[in-house]
C-alpha cells in the first residue's frame, strides 16, 4: 500500500479505536465465523445470535409479544407492507430512547421504506462491508470509484469521501465522452483503485471500450463489485478482458445490509451467515423450499435490536444449495433472480439503470409505480398516488424525458393497485419491445 492509502486506513481504525473499537471487534468476529464455518464455536455463536434476537423481539417488540422464541418458525413471515402498516409495533420499547440511524430504500415494490437501526447494527454493517470488500480485492485506503445515481442520494459528504478516498461518479452523466474521461482519470491517477456500482453501468463501460477497439486498460484496478442489479456473466468476462479484474456481484439491501457476495470466478453467492439467518421459502406458501428449488429469499437480521427484522421476505427469489468442497458442505445461494427485471431503454436504444426508479421518490404523493415500455419511444407509467389529482404531471413527464429522450411519448395512468407476480413480487419495469 502507498503512504496515502496507509494513512487513510490508519485514520479509519484509529477513529474506531477512540470510539471503543466496535467495528474492529465485529470485523474479527465476522472473519472468524465466515472463514471457519465448520468450527463448533462458529456454529454455537450463530445459534446464540439467532436465539438472542428472537428472545429480545418476543420480550420487547409489541408485534412479537405472544410468540414463543424457541423456534424461528414460530415467527410470522413479514414484508415491507406489513412493517409499514404496523410501523410502531416493530420497534423495541427498550431501544426507543437510544440513538438510532434511519436507512431508506425504494425497493422493487416501488414504495419508499425506512428502517431504524441501533448504532451497534450500524457498526456490524460497516464491518460486513469492510470484510466482504476485502474478499473482492479492495482494502481500506484504496481510491474507490463509486458509480451510482448520486443525485438521488443525500449526504454526499465531501470530507467523508476524502477520508474514505471515495470518488462519486453519477451514472446518468455517463455518456461516451464521460466514460472516456473516467477511463483517462483512472489511468492517470496513481495508487491502487477499486470500483463499485450498478452492474448495468459496467456493461455500458465495457461496450464503450469495445466500440473504440480499446486495448486492456492499465490502471492498477484491484476490485470491481456490481450492486443493485443482476450481474451478467458476459459483463464479468468483459471486465476481466479490459481491466484484468475478476468482478463479483454483491447481494445486499438498504434496510438490512450485506447479505451475500460472489467469490471471485464463481457464479454462486457465499451467504453472510455471521450477520444473517437466511431461508428460502416456497413461492406458494411459507414452507421451506427444497434444496435446488426456486423460492423466496427470507432473512433474519441478527443485529438490529432497535427494530428487529425477523423472517423478512426481501421480495427477491433465489435458489439455495449445498456446496461440497474438501469433503465439507456449506449452504450457498446458487442463484439470485430477484433483481432480474426487464431493462428499460431510452429512445436511442441505450439500456438505462433500473435506478431510474429512484427519480419517482422525489414525488412524495406517489406511493407505488410501474414503468412499461410499449414501443421504442412510448412509455406507460402506472402510478398509485395518495391524493388525486396529481398536480405535477407536466413536471414529472419533463423530468423523465431528460433520461428517456426528448422524443419520448410518456403516458401517466393512475390506478388503485398494481398486480403482483405469482411469486408475490411487483414487477417495477416491464419492457414489451421485442429484441
Please describe what this structure looks like.
This protein is α/β, with parallel strands linked by helices and 435 residues long. The protein has two domains: 3-336, Rossmann fold (3-Layer(aba) Sandwich), CATH 3.40.50.12780; 354-431, GMP Synthetase, Chain A, domain 3 (2-Layer Sandwich), CATH 3.30.300. It is built from ten helices and 17 strands. It has a seven-stranded mixed beta sheet with strand order 4-3-5-6-7-8-9, with helices on both faces. Strand 12 (312-325) and strand 13 (328-336) form a beta hairpin. Helix 2 packs across helix 5 (119-136) and helix 8 packs across helix 9 (233-243). The longest helix has 21 residues, at 40-60. The protein starts with a helix and ends with a strand. The mean pLDDT is 88. InterPro entries: ANL_N_sf, CapK_Type1_Caps_Biosynth. This is CoF synthetase. It comes from Flavivirga spongiicola.
Amino acid at each position: 500500500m502507498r503512504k496515502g492509502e496507509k494513512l487513510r486506513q490508519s485514520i479509519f481504525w484509529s477513529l474506531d479505536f477512540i470510539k471503543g473499537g466496535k467495528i474492529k471487534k465485529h470485523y474479527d468476529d465476522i472473519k472468524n465465523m465466515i472463514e471457519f464455518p465448520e468450527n463448533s464455536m462458529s456454529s454455537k455463536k450463530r445459534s446464540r445470535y439467532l436465539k438472542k434476537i428472537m428472545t429480545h423481539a418476543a420480550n420487547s417488540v409489541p408485534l412479537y409479544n405472544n410468540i414463543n422464541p424457541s423456534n424461528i418458525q414460530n415467527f410470522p413471515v413479514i414484508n415491507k407492507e406489513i412493517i409499514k402498516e404496523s410501523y410502531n409495533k416493530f420497534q423495541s420499547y427498550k431501544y426507543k430512547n437510544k440513538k438510532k440511524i434511519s436507512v431508506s430504500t425504494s425497493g422493487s415494490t416501488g414504495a419508499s421504506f425506512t428502517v431504524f437501526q441501533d448504532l451497534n447494527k450500524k457498526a456490524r454493517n460497516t464491518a460486513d462491508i469492510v470484510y466482504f470488500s476485502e474478499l473482492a480485492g479492495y482494502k481500506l485506503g484504496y481510491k474507490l470509484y463509486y458509480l451510482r445515481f448520486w443525485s438521488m442520494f443525500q449526504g454526499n459528504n465531501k470530507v467523508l469521501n476524502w477520508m474514505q478516498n471515495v470518488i462519486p461518479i453519477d451514472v446518468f452523466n455517463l455518456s461516451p465522452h464521460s466514460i472516456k474521461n473516467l477511463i483517462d482519470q483512472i489511468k492517470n491517477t496513481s495508487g491502487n483503485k477499486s470500483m463499485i456500482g450498478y452492474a448495468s453501468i459496467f456493461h455500458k463501460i465495457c461496450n464503450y471500450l469495445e466500440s473504440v477497439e480499446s486495448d486492456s486498460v492499465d490502471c492498477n484496478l484491484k476490485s470491481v463489485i456490481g450492486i443493485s442489479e443482476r450481474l451478467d456473466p458476459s459483463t464479468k468476462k468483459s471486465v476481466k478482458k479490459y481491466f484484468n479484474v475478476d468482478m463479483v456481484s454483491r447481494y445486499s439491501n438498504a434496510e438490512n445490509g450485506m447479505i451475500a457476495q460472489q467469490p471471485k470466478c464463481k457464479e454462486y453467492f457465499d451467504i453472510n451467515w455471521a450477520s444473517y439467518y437466511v431461508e428460502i421459502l416456497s413461492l406458494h406458501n411459507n414452507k421451506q423450499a427444497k434444496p435446488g428449488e426456486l423460492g423466496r429469499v427470507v432473512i433474519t437480521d441478527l443485529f438490529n435490536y432497535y427494530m428487529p427484522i425477523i423472517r423478512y421476505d426481501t421480495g427477491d427469489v433465489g435458489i439455495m444449495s449445498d456446496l461440497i468442497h474438501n469433503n465439507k458442505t456449506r449452504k450457498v445461494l446458487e442463484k439470485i433472480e430477484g433483481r432480474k427485471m426487464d431493462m428499460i431503454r431510452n429512445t436511442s436504444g441505450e439500456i438505462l439503470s433500473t435506478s431510474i426508479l429512484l427519480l419517482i421518490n422525489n414525488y412524495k404523493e406517489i406511493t407505488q409505480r410501474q414503468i412499461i415500455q410499449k414501443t421504442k419511444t412510448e412509455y406507460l407509467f402506472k402510478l398509485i398516488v395518495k391524493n388525486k389529482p396529481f398536480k405535477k404531471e407536466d413536471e414529472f413527464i419533463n423530468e423523465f424525458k431528460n433520461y428517456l429522450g426528448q422524443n419520448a411519448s410518456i403516458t401517466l395512468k393512475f390506478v388503485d393497485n398494481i398486480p403482483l407476480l405469482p411469486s408475490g413480487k411487483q414487477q417495477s419495469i416491464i419492457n414489451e419491445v421485442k429484441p
